[in-house]
Amino acid sequence: MNQPLLKAVNVKKVFGRGDNSVTAVKNINLTINKGSMIALKGRSGSGKTTLLNLLAALDQPTEGEVFFNGQIISKLPEKQRSHWRRTHLGLVFQAFGLIPLMSAYENVEFGLRIAGNDSKLNRAQAERALEWVGMKARMKHRPPELSGGEQQRVAIARAIAHQPVLLLADEPTAELDSRMGLQVIKVFRDLVENHGMTVVMTTHDPGIMEIVDHVIALEDGEIVTESNQSNS
Ligand SMILES: Nc1ncnc2c1ncn2[C@@H]1O[C@H](COP(=O)(O)OP(=O)(O)OP(=O)(O)O)[C@@H](O)[C@H]1O
Ligand SMILES: [Mg+2]
């Protein structure tokens, strides 16, 4: 099943103009297949977040194109890109971004509500997402009553409740110790194996490299190696 889901062709991103301009990524050519789990690694400033934001259509390339299922997404106007994101994309960040006064369930359900989803389905979708990340039993708890790893799992549930095919995560384990980080990565792996998702994450964590299918290494904004892991 090597069907391409995401594709970047000759992508370049320059921030600013003239003497102050910074080329954050360049010469980016990559294909991410459906049902795979990819890690982007590289030193601070190597362009990981920039590339992730371009793949998420949160930002647009200065040159080149990003395709999703064969359709150009990078050239769409913001309104259509935002519709695309709400439909197909889940996003997870380093700081979990949960609302402390809401329970885990309410956080996930609220995410669906502000995205304008059909409220009749919200309860079932929120509970299903919490079940997928192993947090259903604790869904009445508020974030301050949960461990960091548990909070991140709730944030993942919020990101996947609308069942996107693509989940992008920017350093999702950076705030966690290695044991909890591993727990979170195993949740991603399970979403890929059992729930049809494709995951792209940035990371500094060497332990994660063994669990993903491919590691893409960036250096000064360019891809320097793309390694195939044994289980791909
Ligand atoms: N909005 C922006 N305006 C100007 N320069 C930017 C902007 N965003 C990123 N950059 C620059 O682009 C380069 C790549 O940044 P990016 O955030 O993608 O790196 P990163 O690999 O995610 O780093 P880290 O590991 O620290 O998160 C850096 O030199 C950064 O300063
Ligand atoms: Mg970054």
UniProtKB/TrEMBL annotation:
Record the organism.
Paenibacillus albus
Q: Name one Pfam family in it.
A: ABC_tran
Listed under GO cellular component are: membrane protein complex; plasma membrane
Which Gene3D superfamilies does the annotation name? P-loop containing nucleotide triphosphate hydrolases
Location of the ABC transporter domain: 6-232
Question: What is this protein's record name?
Answer: ABC transporter ATP-binding protein
Molecular function in Gene Ontology:
ATP binding; ATP hydrolysis activity; transmembrane transporter activity
Q: What is this organism's lineage?
A: Bacteria, Bacillati, Bacillota, Bacilli, Bacillales
InterPro entries with a match to the protein in the record = AAA+_ATPase (IPR003593), ABC_transporter-like_ATP-bd (IPR003439), ABC_transporter-like_CS (IPR017871), ABC_transpr_LolD-like (IPR015854), MacB-like_ATP-bd (IPR017911), P-loop_NTPase (IPR027417)
Key words of the record: ATP-binding, Nucleotide-binding, Transport
SUPFAM superfamilies cross-referenced by the UniProt entry: P-loop containing nucleoside triphosphate hydrolases
Whether Zinc counts among this entry's keywords is no
